[in-house]
Amino acid sequence: MSHALSTAPVGAFSPEPVRFSRLYAWCVFALTFGLMMSDYLSRQVIGAVMPVLKLEWSLLDSQLAMLVSVVSLVVGVLTVPISLVADRWGRVRSITLMAFVWCLATIACGLAQSHGQLLWARAFVGLGEAAYGAAGAALLAHVFPAKQRAAVLGAFLSASLFGSVLGVVIGGAVAAQAGWRMAFFAVGAPGLLLALIYPFVVRDYKTVALTAEVRGGGATARLSARQVGREVFAARSGNLAYIASGLQMAMPAMLIAWLPTYFVRYYGMDVKHGALMAAVAVMAAGVGMVFGGGLADRLSAKNPRLRALVPAVYSALTALVLIAGFALPPGSLAMGLIFAGALFAAAQGGCSAAIACDVTHPGVRATVTATMALANNLIGLAPGPLIVGMLSDVLGLKLALTVAPAMALAAAFFFVLTSRSYEADAARIRARVAQNAG
């Protein structure tokens, strides 16, 4: 018995999403972007209060790093299973519930009385955030046309960095004035309002069922988890993009987690000033992510291979500039290089997501974005800050941050490998979708 892959809840699958009004599309984007900012406000406020926690609880750098990495670890482990649940239960309802969980868990962080309690509360922040990026990206991919995909997804993902900026700034300012506990309360509460509004504005879409069609008989059956997995990992370029993106995402993760502490220790800044300077670097990373995807879209319009080669350049520049910035003695030049390196640190975000969507079947798009989130968290976001913390306990924070950007060179290598098979993989998927639509 032979099978052909098809999409079927309503008949033939359209390769383009349903057209929505520009006003509605951008309202969906604004709310989804806002919740992504809240997500990362909750996730990254810890970086601003780490110097205070170290003094109050006499923690090692590796223990501080655990408070950062546990969120990414939980997100990485749970993002795919929770995304599958979200696809079945509904993305809008799932997003609303997830937002309530991470906001309430963030407030609980401010009530912790020990490192262990804070670690558990941070784990629940990760539980709430686990599938938000995937569900939000799937909604945006449905509302906006494919020609805008890299730019829109890049802008959406940039909310993670702008949220991180606010988390660091607000956390540092509030901690300096009212204590570190109040910092968690201040960033956790606003997301609750967005969570209340979201389901009253955003309409979910009917899940496109990925089925196996029995040729000759016309009958269809839902694909098994193994068959879905084959689709998600079918393209060589997609698999390489998962690895490349994961390695590169260690760069913004380590900058967000450790720059406030770095500026306090090596530049003699107070907590508030160190957080503000770190926020400048994170803001630069957010700007890079916004424009990085759009630049790749434009440059790859006539030469599709540049879709993967452009992020390879971003990664190489990140490594070289950050290594120089941390190796130099503290000063204006070193700080300028750190900010410049941050500009390229996350610029590949939209490119990687678009590559993965381009080379896999639309019927597994939510699972693909979840898989990208898994790779980002397990390969980069979780290990990056922890590796720096462990190295810092042995070598000192300055040398640890000088060595760590070598991971970006590895990311550049994998992006180059991605470019070698991207065109063929994307063409294969376009042909399959056209065949199903016909």
List keywords for this structure.
438 residues, mainly alpha, Growth Hormone, Chain: A, 3-stranded antiparallel β-sheet, 19 helices, disordered N terminus, transmembrane, MFS_spinster-like, membrane
Describe the structure.
Helix 13 runs antiparallel to helix 19 (406-437). This protein has a three-stranded antiparallel beta sheet. The model is unreliable at 1-17 and 214-219 (pLDDT under 50). 79% of the residues lie in helices and 3% in strands. A hairpin with a 5-residue loop joins strand 2 and strand 3 (220-222). The protein is built from 19 helices and three strands. The protein has a single domain, classed as Growth Hormone, Chain: A (Up-down Bundle), CATH 1.20.1250.20. By secondary structure, it is an all-alpha fold. Keywords: Membrane, Transmembrane, Transmembrane helix, Transport. This is MFS transporter. It holds the Pfam family MFS_1. Residues 27-423 form the Major facilitator superfamily (MFS) profile domain. The chain crosses the membrane at residues 23-42, 62-86, 95-113, 119-144, 151-176, 182-201, 240-263, 275-296, 308-328, 334-356, 368-391, 397-418.
